[in-house]
From TrEMBL:
GO terms for molecular function: signaling receptor binding. This is Nerve growth factor-related domain-containing protein. InterPro entries: Cystine-knot_cytokine, Nerve_growth_factor-rel. Residues 93-165 form the Nerve growth factor-related domain. Pfam families: NGF. It comes from Toxocara canis.
Length: 173
């Protein structure tokens, strides 16, 4: 006997246009699957499938979101010293001739902070700041030489890294 499935397809809001929403009730079978174009045109003649248009007002909105990792955003991040690609500490040119600045994003807590909302029994999680190298004019710290073109390491985002925990079996002895 076929299993009854309830499938809800969501609407997509496009500027100045709302596409219709559908709920399709029917039996799970490849021969009975119909496309949305058939559903929209009313061409579904299978008595086991009922198509209903839903208005956007009848659909509940999603609950308020929660951040997986807390972040700190600095709109005018302009470092005086930074690390170059080779790992050396350099001075970044910040004067009337050249001024390096950008918007930086870092994880709120810098050391081994677990991600919020992750199932800890299945995954180990960690909030990690991701860095990129950006072009800036630099020189060795304390040097009186001219600044030269280089790349400095800057924080650009925070992401949750997941690692699947191994399957653990409890053995009673």
């Amino acid at each position: 006997m076929p299993v009854l499935h309830n499938v809800t397809l969501m609407s997509i809001t496009v500027p100045s246009q709302v596409l219709p929403m559908y709920e399709i009730y029917g039996f799970s079978s490849s021969s009975r699957q119909k496309s949305l174009s058939q559903a929209d045109s009313g061409a579904i003649d299978d008595p086991t499938i009922r198509v209903m248009k839903k208005s956007a007002a009848s659909v509940k909105s999603l609950p308020h979101y929660e951040d997986v990792c807390g972040i700190v955003i600095q709109n005018q991040f302009s470092p005086v010293v930074a690390f170059e690609k080779n790992g050396s500490l350099v001075e970044v040119q910040q004067d009337s001739h050249r001024n390096f600045f950008m918007t930086s994003v870092e994880c709120e807590k810098q050391t081994n902070h677990e991600c919020h909302g992750i199932d800890n029994s299945m995954y180990s999680s960690e909030c990690v700041t991701v860095y990129e190298y950006r072009r800036a004019y630099v020189r060795a710290v304390g040097a009186k030489t001219n600044f030269v073109d280089g790349f400095i390491k800057v924080p650009v985002t925070c992401q949750c890294r997941l690692r699947r925990k191994g399957v653990r079996m409890l053995v009673n002895t």
